[in-house]
Write a structure and sequence with these properties.
The complex is a heterotrimer of chains A (about 325), B (about 425) and C (about 270). By secondary structure, chain A is α/β, with parallel strands linked by helices. Helix content of chain A is about 30%, strand content about 20%. Chain A has helices at about 45-50, 80-85, 110-120, 125-140, 155-165, 185-200, 215-220, 240-245, 250-255, 320-330; strands at about 1-10, 20-30, 35-40, 60-70, 70-75, 90-95, 175, 205-210, 225-230, 230-235, 305-310, 315. Classes of the chains: A alpha/beta (about 325), B mainly alpha (about 425), C alpha/beta (about 270).
């Protein structure tokens, strides 16, 4: 459904410095699948989401790579064209904290009208309303919401409305960036349920879900990609990544999960000391080397490729799979 | 602190505004050192002398040496000064109307034109359809060209103290020149004189200084009151907040300018000095500062670092001074700049209405506008009496607002580009 | 189950009401609690449950509308500045947002020097103070020599929060209120912060009160959990009792709504 090959993008700061936020990322999502992207703040996961749409505007710049949506290669398309024919129709994006960016003086129906008219200005008010009503019914949202202002909605309802607005034109791929992190657990669950229902009913064909909350990601995604310092450091199914992480960074992340389940109190949290490298001039070798317990001298010299280990599983570390697993079992 | 200053001075708008204001300030400071004339001294007998260099004619004649310069265009300039092109056209018009054939008249040949004029012009004659003003105009032209072509020197004579008869003292030839440097009295009136015959430029510089002081004093008073009330109301809250905000709201609904007019009026002309006016302006314009500071403090008061400071056992005054004030300092500086600027404008407004400082001691920008208006400088076209004042007011307030916008861009991340 | 010590902070009918008349909001509604010496307590609630208001009342930062708070068995008295200062020698806090916990105009040293002054060490020679600050920083694995003369914005969020723990290390209060100390920090650094807090408690034996919305965190760290909803405690008890065998419907819902990894996360109950 969505395929990305070796995509690299950068930010150019006010002082004309380059920040390499996404470094040769490749990914592939099959129809009906949800891909989860995990990582700490500043690891480039939100930038990746922006870059995936092929819609570049300063300070974000394209460097290299290809993006193929449903067989259509959109590499090198002009931003204007992307906006007209791709955004919202092929691929939709829910930015972080979008629900707090809604214009408070407009009704929900107006946001939907904006999306529709941007692609086809000939729609009448009645047509838009009928479409919106059908859409809300399909997504299980009450139709009264259409006539309300953002301030009149609760946090959970506001976020679900934002999602509904984003999928107005029934895109094939939905990118959701931290769609539930500002909500309380109950609203979060409602948002997740809505996204899951959309996937299950085939309303959207594929989804990319970005969050730093691993238990949530585990429950939403089929596959999980762990990002660190602009690179993918591990890729695999949700089960594999959470219960059998290979990369030392993924291992650290999984070791910081806190869920209210029996056994948690006897578990030991793992801490990773230090901070991620500065992406203005990333280190030549492994980007995790400075924080890694198992670091070897050669780690710092040459860059580490992403090793494929079969069945779509991959990790970026020079140590063999078995050695890593052994180290995790004993060396804690 | 250093970091902030460096950022501020990277903002183009701030630098432009700051440079304009500093230039004005420098002029205001340096000018009185160079030109030591009392600004309100009446020097001109008559109103609105145009800008220019005024050379004392008596001293020019009595210059130590008179130089002889044979300049080719001297005669032409002399004639041209009195007989302009439009006068020549008018003369031709008169002559044609009088009956002289048009092809005989060559207006570029001064000698021939004057000869024709001499022969035909009759000052008492009014051509049919000619207005009285036009008639007088021709009489004036006739008078001014009298003796225009003469090459005789002018005679300087003085009465003999005994006989009373005029005795020739010296001859001034047309090729005599005096060096301006050797003339004892030359006065540059770059902006002419005003209705009272006072040097506008000197007065303008003095007035700018006074107006800046008024703005500064008004701004200081307004900012101090606003800041104090805002800090107290915002930080202490509760009853103190309610009482202070009641007064602030009271002041908000009373139109400040009306209040200003009433207070100024009730003080009376004699007691209204520049500083009094500044204080009146200051005491009526603190309201917005107080409200703005209060709302800023309200949001700061619940910040964790304030809570932490409390937990560290610091006293309320210390918390206000150390943990609150620095956070709103940039905002207060901006408010202060605006207060100064609006203080200057308020003074100008009051003075135009005749409610400014008393007129005998100090000029202010507003008073200069007031005088220019009363003596109808704008109707008479005496631009030098009001235009420079307007430009100064505009420049001062423009530079301050520009500085403010620059600061806003530095301190307000949302406006940063 | 840990052996409970004497109650060091108790509340009876503690209430906080904001505003008057029609604009009245009851933030905390007649809550009773007993926090014992050396105990780790978590107060769990969603946003708007009144947990932060309660924390501020415990700290004495805002007044109590109704009810009484008892400190070490005696009624708490905060009527004068001196008494407040005395109280704050015994109870301290770590706040949620490390970025707003510092006065950005002050160097980091001043935060630590304040602590030394509070412990009565204001007149110690400079060398002794530096020694104390170095010790406190090394407790949280920071190097004082690298931090001195720096401003807060030159530190990362994790470093700032560790420095906050160093501050507590210097103050050695009897009670520490930690208001969402890890919610603004990346997962990897979260474990570090919790480790240091635990280490500090083990060394000083202080009472630790966590205020959090993260039920997993509460379960991991605490001996006792209080569940708060709309200003009231709906359930309290030992961590295992409350989390594994919840009785109140609100607690059950809260726990079922949190995504899990070992058990099935039931989405049908929304």
């Amino acid at each position: 459904m969505l395929e990305v090959r070796d995509l690299s993008t950068k930010y150019v700061t006010r002082y004309k410095e380059d920040v390499y936020a996404v470094d040769r990322v490749s990914l592939k999502i099959e129809e009906g699948k949800t891909l989860g992207i995990a990582g700490e703040s500043g690891c480039g996961k939100s930038t990746l989401a922006l870059s995936l749409m092929g819609y570049y505007f300063p300070p974000l710049h394209y460097i290299s790579g290809e993006i193929i949506i449903d067989g259509q290669n959109i590499t090198g398309m002009k931003p204007d064209e992307v906006r007209k024919s791709i955004l919202g129709k092929e691929i939709a994006y829910i930015p972080q904290a979008a629900m707090n960016a809604l214009n408070p003086t407009r009704k929900v129906i107006d946001f939907i009208g904006d999306v529709i008219r941007a692609h086809d200005p000939t729609w009448t008010k009645q047509m838009i309303y009928d479409h919106a009503r059908a859409l809300f019914e399909r997504l299980g949202l009450p139709a009264e919401v259409l006539q309300k202002y953002p301030v009149e909605l609760s946090g959970g309802m506001k976020q679900r409305t934002v999602i509904a607005v984003a999928v107005t034109l029934t895109p094939k791929v939905l990118i959701a960036d931290e769609p539930s992190s500002a909500l309380d657990v109950t609203s979060q669950k409602m948002v997740i349920k809505m996204l899951r229902d959309m996937m299950e009913s085939g309303f959207i064909k594929a989804m990319i879900f970005i969050t730093h909350e691993l238990p949530l990601l585990y429950n939403v995604a089929d596959d999980i990609m762990v990002m660190y310092a602009g690179q993918i450091v591990e890729r695999g199914t949700a089960k594999q990544t959470v219960f059998d992480p290979l990369h030392p960074y993924s291992k650290g992340l999984m070791g910081s999960i806190l869920v209210p389940e029996s056994g948690l109190r006897s578990a030991k949290l793992t801490a990773i000391p230090g901070a991620p490298p500065n992406l203005k001039n990333p280190p030549p070798g492994c980007r995790f080397a400075d924080r890694c317990k198992y670091v070897k001298p050669e780690c710092r010299v040459t860059s580490v490729p992403l090793y494929e280990v079969g069945h779509g599983r991959a990790y970026r570390c020079i140590l063999p799979e078995e050695e890593l697993r052994r180290a995790y079992e004993h060396g804690e | 602190m250093q970091h902030t200053l460096r950022q501020v001075f990277r903002s183009g708008k701030f630098i432009v505004g700051f440079s304009i204001l500093m230039t004005i300030l420098l002029i205001v400071i340096i000018y009185p050192w160079v030109v030591r004339h009392p600004p309100l001294q009446i020097i001109g007998q008559g109103t609105f002398f145009p800008p220019g260099i005024y050379v004392n004619v008596y001293d020019a004649i009595h210059a130590p040496t008179l130089y002889t310069l044979n300049l080719e265009d001297a005669a032409a300039n002399r004639i041209g000064n009195k007989l302009r092109q439009e006068d020549r056209v008018a003369m031709k018009e008169w002559l044609v109307a009088f009956g002289v054939p048009e092809d005989e008249i060559d207006i570029d040949d001064t000698e021939k034109l004057l000869a024709l004029w001499e022969a035909n012009y009759n000052p008492d004659l009014r051509l049919p359809g000619m207005t009285f003003a036009r008639h007088r105009y021709f009489q004036r032209v006739n008078a001014s060209i009298d003796g225009l072509l003469s090459t005789e020197p002018a005679i300087i004579a003085a009465p003999n103290s005994e006989t009373g008869a005029l005795e020739q003292k010296a001859l001034i030839r047309q090729t005599d020149y005096a060096n301006v440097d050797e003339v004892a009295n030359v006065r540059i009136l770059a902006l002419g004189t005003d209705n009272f015959g006072r040097d506008v430029l000197t007065q303008l510089v003095a007035a700018t200084a006074v107006s800046l002081v008024i703005g500064l004093v008004a701004g200081l008073i307004a900012t101090t009151i606003g800041l104090t009330l805002g800090l107290l109301a915002g930080y202490i809250g509760g009853l103190v907040d309610d009482v202070l905000m009641f007064f602030t709201n009271l002041f908000t609904v009373i139109p400040t300018f009306v209040l200003l007019i009433l207070i100024s009026f009730s003080i009376g002309q004699d007691k209204r000095g520049a500083i009094t006016i500044a204080m009146v302006i200051g005491f009526t314009s603190w309201v917005w500062t107080a409200r703005a500071v209060r709302s800023q403090v309200l949001s700061l008061r619940n910040r964790d670092h304030v809570n932490l400071s409390k937990l560290s056992g610091h006293s309320v005054p210390r918390i206000i001074l150390v943990d609150i004030l620095p956070y709103i300092a940039s905002y207060v500086v901006m408010a202060f700049i605006l207060q100064v600027s609006s203080g200057i404008l308020a003074e100008a407004g009051l003075s135009i209405l005749g409610l400014g400082p008393r007129t005998t001691e100090t000029p202010t920008l507003g008073l200069m506008m007031n005088w220019a208006m009363i003596y109808q400088a704008h109707i008479l076209g005496k631009w030098w009496a009001y235009l420079p004042v307007l430009v100064t007011i505009a420049l001062v307030s423009f530079s301050m607002n520009l500085m403010n916008t620059g600061l806003d861009q530095v301190f307000n991340p949302a406006l940063r580009d | 189950m840990v052996n409970k010590g004497n109650p060091c902070l108790s509340g009876r009918g503690v209430t906080k009401i904001f505003g008057f008349g029609r604009h009245k909001t009851i933030a905390v509604d007649h809550v009773d609690f007993d926090f014992h010496e050396g105990e780790i307590v978590s107060i769990v609630g969603e946003s708007g449950s009144g947990k932060t208001t309660l924390a501020k009342m415990l700290l004495g930062l805002i007044s109590v509308t109704e009810g009484e708070i008892y400190f070490q068995g005696k009624k708490r008295d905060l009527s004068s500045g001196r008494k407040k200062q005395e109280y704050w020698r015994n109870i301290q806090a770590i706040f949620q947002d490390p970025f707003s916990s510092y006065n950005i105009f002050h160097k980091i040293d001043s935060v630590l020097l304040d602590c030394i002054r509070m412990r009565g060490g204001g007149n110690l020679p400079r060398e002794k103070k530096v020694e104390m600050m170095t010790e406190a920083c090394s407790f949280v694995n920071l190097k004082f020599a690298e931090l001195t003369n720096k401003y807060p914005f030159e530190l990362s969020g994790g470093q700032m929060q560790r420095l906050m723990i160093a501050r507590i290390f210097l103050l050695k209060p009897k009670i520490l209120v930690a208001d969402e100390p890890t919610s603004m920090i990346d997962a990897c650094s979260r474990a570090t912060i919790l480790d240091y807090l635990m280490k500090l408690r083990n060394e000083t034996g202080m009472t630790l009160i966590f205020i959090t919305h993260d039920i997993g965190l509460a379960y991991y760290v605490s001996d006792t959990i209080y569940i708060m909803e709309h200003g009231r405690f709906v359930e309290s008890g030992s961590a295992d009792d409350v989390i594994l065998y919840p009785k109140h419907p609100y607690t059950r819902r809260l726990i079922s709504d949190v995504p899990k990894i070992y058990e099935e996360w039931d989405l049908s109950t929304v």
